[in-house]
Amino acid sequence: MSDDFDCSDIDNYLGKPMDFSPLREAIAPNDIRRWVHAMHYPNLAHFDPGHAEASVWGRLVAPQSFAIATDDGHGAAPACVGRIENSHLLFGGDEWWFHGPRIEPGDVITNTRIPFDYTVKQTGFGPTCFQRGDNNYSNQKGEEIARQRSTSIRYRAAAGGDNVKTDDFEEPEWTDEALEEMEQRRFAWVQMLHDLGSKERWWDDVAVGDQLPERVFGPHSIASFATEWRAYIVNTWGTLDLRKQDLEGLGFTREMAGYENDPDMLKVNPFLTDGAYYGPSRGHLFAKYARRIGMPRGYGYGASMGSWVTDYLSGWAGQHGMVVHSIANYRGPALTGDVTIQTAEVTEKSVDDQGRHLVHVKHLMKNQKGTTMCTGTAEIALPKKPG
Predict the structure, then answer these.
(1) Which residues form a coiled coil (predicted)?
(2) Where are the beta strands (DSSP E) in the chain?
């Protein structure tokens, strides 16, 4: 390990539960509607009263991806504790285990967060720390909803700006014809959601080698990223009983850290606590700060990217199916002006020791240039035909 990239402070946190900032109110229906809207997930069961009532649940419930919206750190908190002097951080991926219960209006969600491990490798950024931590989401009944193991990527602050690809400073220009073609491709996946509705997708009817329908959405913009930001409940003033964060202990450069989510400053000058405009998250919306950490222009949120994966797979599974496990490795950002394209292939079918009939898939996320944004695998439980 380089002398000026000392990660040893992380050892002081491993295996120890962290503090958690609880929601002040129970989950509301519009929290769920705002989430699916922001995540580009037009599944009627999660926002339309008539379809929710006619669904397999008989009421409005949140999509599987919603758990992360209830956390005060976008799922990254247990993967970024520990002081690394003059460092930056990116969300590098996550692994999810879903236990079954859905979040619904009236629920109060608790997250037990435990830093897990870390390793240091040489990358294009120089010495780089890959740090992991667990988020364990449960409801007021004590039911376990999901476990998320997040990965953060931490590297020297000076290395960020050196890695900016200047060729990507400008957004792509889309012709009217290209936008129309993209809209048709986007709606094809929406139509799949509508056609499946509350019907079963049977495990028996899926074969190894099957391709899941592509999902296309975008072009992304500062407006769409800001909409995503506001769908994370913590990012609206006063919604969480924020615990005092040790900003120095988090190890970001002080210039970038600011007062994001600082409960004391929230009562004095809330603008300074809003990560959309100040603090380490502002690079998502402002090219000046994006370039300081190695991004050419405004870029999307890692937590959103993971949610896109979950929504894509659970939307295909339908109301009678469920994503039970997934891995997402983030390889490149969603940049302003770019389009996101998701595909997946069935690689295996199995029955696990719980008797669940599983479809194994390999999923991929790219942009319109073919640049890989995310890779991973997942297991999806589907119903078996009776008889």
Answers:
(1) none
(2) 87-98, 110-123, 126-138, 144-156, 211-217, 322-330, 340-351, 357-367, 372-381
